[in-house]
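Known limitations

C-alpha cells in this collection are predictions and should be treated as such. Users comparing against experimental data should check residue numbering before alignment. To illustrate the layout, the record for ATP synthase subunit b, chloroplastic is reproduced below. The input appears on top and the generated C-alpha cells appear beneath it.
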Amino acid sequence: MKNVTDSFVSLGHWPSAGSFGFNTDILATNLINLSVVLGVLVFFGKGVLSDLLDNRKQRILNTIRNSEELRGGAIEQLEKARTRLLKVEMEADQFRVNGYSEIERERFNFINSTSKTLKQLENYKNETIHFEQQRAINQVRQRVFQQALQGALGTLSSCLNNELHLRTIRANIGMLGTITD
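Generated C-alpha cells:
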C-alpha cells in the first residue's frame, strides 16, 4: 500500500512536470485506470444494479409468498387427511366391535338353538321309548290274556259236561231275567 500512495504523491515531484509523456510504472497506471473504471461503473451502474437487485428481491419474496401459500394449503390438506383417517379408523373400530358382537350374538343364538334342538330330540327319544314300552306292555298283556283265555277255555271245555253246561246256561238266563224285571 505504501507503493500506491507513493506513486500518487510522487506525481507532483516529477522532474518534467510541465511536459507530457508516458508513465511506464505499471502499478501506478493500472491503479488509476481501475479507479476511473470503478468510478464510472458505480456512477452509471448504480441504478441498473439497484433495479436488478430489487427485481431479484421481488422474485424471491414472491417465491416465498407462493411457498407459504402452498405450505398452508398442504397443511390444510394434511389436516383434512388426518381427520378422514381418524374417521375411517373410528368406523373400522366400530365395524370391528359390531362384527365381534354380531359374531358373539350369532354364536350365542346357535348354542341356544342347538341346545333347544337337543332337548327336543331328547324329549322325542323319551316319548318314543315310552310309546314303545307301552306298546310292548300292551302286546304282552294281549298275549297273556289270550293265553289265559285259551287256558280257561281249555279248562272249561275239559271240565264242563253237557249237564253242567246246561245248568250254567239256565243260571245265567235266570240272572238275566231278574235284571230285566
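For this record: Helices lie at 2-9, 26-159, 162-180. Residues 7-14 have pLDDT under 50 and may be disordered. Please report discrepancies through the issue tracker.
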